[in-house]
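The records we work with from here on pair a chain with its fold. Taken together, the tokens spell out the fold as the letters spell out the chain. To see the layout at work, look at the sequence and tokens printed below.
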Amino acid sequence: MVDVMPTLTRFVRTVVLAVGFVYAVLWSLATLVEPRSRLMSEPVDSRILRDAGRAPAIRAERIDPNG
């Protein structure tokens, strides 16, 4: 059989091999690697807690759509 479009065939083969490699890597990471659980905490600035119940300093004004 004579290959009519060798560059297209090489391109498709290269793309298929690249996709297969990426799929194999992602599959192996998903099945073979166990995630480590750990506690996470982040400090909260006291100003955020102090100002949590207050109204915002700048009030948004309503815009009248008719005029």
